[in-house]
Amino acid sequence: MLEKLEGIVLRTNDYGETNKIVTMFTREKGKKAAVARGAKKTNSRLSGVTQPFTHGHFLVQESRGLGTMQQGEALSSMRYIREDLMKTAYAAYIVEMTDRTTEDGEVNLPLFNLLQKSLDYINEGADAAIVTNIFEMKMLSQVGLRPELSSCVVCGETEGKFGFSIRENGLICHRCTGQDPHFLPLFPASIRLLRLFYFFDLERLGNIDVKEPTKKELRAVISMYYDEYAGLYLKSRRFLEQMERLDYNFQSKEETNDD
């Protein structure tokens, strides 16, 4: 039976001398793998459409084992992601997180839409770091995590100065910081953005201008939270952190030279 699937390529693995096993996250079937025969050949009609991040329509011949990809048509090749190393690093992290937190065949339309929109935004030139932070906050429910971001996790107050308590699993106000001496003090802007990223609809993303110190805080608190609770150790995140450090050092040198 032939199936037409709309999917996003998460990864590929070599299969023999000329073939690939292509793992996609699809709208209709969730995560699904198929053999793309001859896709490693540069002149293959499946070569381009099976590149990582590609969003397209795929015609898959079902079988008892892995299906076989017969045709593919790119809706978006995500060209501008692949042409930029920093964008590639963020996109690779997003797709690996999707891959590692989903099981084969589990349909999840909200996640498909989140993944597609996140890659589209990065490809179109939106701030890749911020889009990635939004993706991470939206993915918390996918990995079974629900931090308290509406009020103080200890006393329930909604007014005051807040930090983030990894131990208590959410925001903690200035009245309750004694409950966790290792809480993370955060800029008010970081608190607002954590709440915004967790609750708002990604479709409504406009121009968000975030200062570098706030970006560093967001990266630190989100990474620490995932490290503590999610148990995800992603190669792409280590690469992304290296790229962010290089980018930050490069920007710092440019600012020093301008002075």
From TrEMBL:
Annotated ranges, domain DNA replication/recombination mediator RecO N-terminal: 1-77
Gene3D superfamilies linked to this entry: Nucleic acid-binding proteins (2.40.50.140), Recombination protein O, C-terminal domain (1.20.1440.120)
Record's keyword annotation contains Chloroplast: no
Keywords: DNA damage, DNA recombination, DNA repair
GO CC, any one term: bacterial nucleoid
Biological process (GO), any one: double-strand break repair
Record-linked Pfam families: RecO_C, RecO_N
NCBIfam families given in the database record: reco
Function: Involved in DNA repair and RecF pathway recombination.
Family: Belongs to the RecO family.
Protein name as catalogued: DNA repair protein RecO
Source organism of this protein record: Domibacillus mangrovi
Name of the gene encoding the protein in the UniProt record: recO
